[in-house]
Amino acid sequence: MKRTISLILSVIFICGVTCIPLSAGSNEADVYAVSTTGGYTLTPLDDDGNAIVSVLQEIDDVMETVYQKTEKFAFSYTATNASDFQLVLMLSGSSAVPTKDNIVYIDQTMPGAANAVAFTLYPSSLNQSEYHVFVSTSGGTGLSEVADFKVYREYILGDANDDGVVDSLDALRILRYAASLADLSPTGLKAADANGDGAVDSLDALRILRYKAGLILSLN
Ligand SMILES: [Ca+2]
Ligand SMILES: [Ca+2]
């Protein structure tokens, strides 16, 4: 353990003077197969809140309409009663039963006068999976599924070692990479730039550790 800590500290020192340039990367969480039921719209937005222009992209041998780098959704509806409160719930996977494992954290804004709500996605928490959107109204009866979409991602931000999870091993891998003690795969290199500054260094390792410690909500 002491040896590991010693390694990390020495690598942080080395990284302090070494910065590996990397083409500016982003957390690729592309949304496709967006579908809604009547009366509801779900519009993928970029980081500035602008509607994303879709592109045709091949995913699993099928040409899909893809909204690249979706950061948020604008979600609108026509409520039966304008005063109805609508709670938006997003679940990952195919189950319609909310559990601690499939509820996706979203940052919902309250319904406005136009009966519209918006919610922010945190792409680093989204896996390559399908997602279903449910609403619950104060005047309704339970949860109703009103929209769904799928997420395609080339990599998970922070997952430097390509094992599908973000944890302290990724931070260690980044430190070892920065010290030329380990390699990163092409996707691992993109995933390693956890702070998006275009370089892979100790700051990325620190950000991952802070994320895993719950000190920051998202790597984005
Ligand atoms: Ca990992
Ligand atoms: Ca970085």
Outline the structure in words:
The chain is of the alpha+beta class and 220 residues long. The chain has two domains: 2-152, Sandwich (Immunoglobulin-like); 155-220, Dockerin domain (Type 1 dockerin domain). It is 20% helix and 29% strand. The protein is built from four helices and twelve strands, in the order αβββββββββββααβα. The protein has a six-stranded antiparallel sheet, with no helix packed on it. It has a four-stranded antiparallel sheet with strand order 3-6-9-8, with no helix packed on it. Helix 1 (2-17) packs across helix 2 and helix 2 (168-178) runs antiparallel to helix 4 (202-212). The longest helix has 16 residues, at 2-17. The radius of gyration is 20 Å and the shape is elongated. It starts with a helix and ends in an 8-residue tail after the last helix. Residues 11-26 have low confidence and may be disordered. One calcium ion is lined by residues 159, 161, 163, 165-167, 169-170.
Summarize this entry quickly.
The chain is of the alpha+beta class and 220 residues long.
What do the pLDDT scores average to?
Answer: 81
Strand content: 25-35%
Structural class, by secondary structure, is alpha+beta
**Secondary-structure element order, N to C:** HEEEEEEEEEEEHHEH
**Dominant shape:** elongated
Total helices: the number is 4
In CATH, what is the class of the largest domain?
Mainly Beta
Ranges with pLDDT <50 over ≥5 residues? 11-26
- CATH topology tier name of the largest domain: Immunoglobulin-like
* Gyration radius, in Å: 20 Å
CATH architecture of the largest domain: Sandwich
The tally of strands reads 12
Major sheet: arrangement of strands: 4-5-2-11-10-7
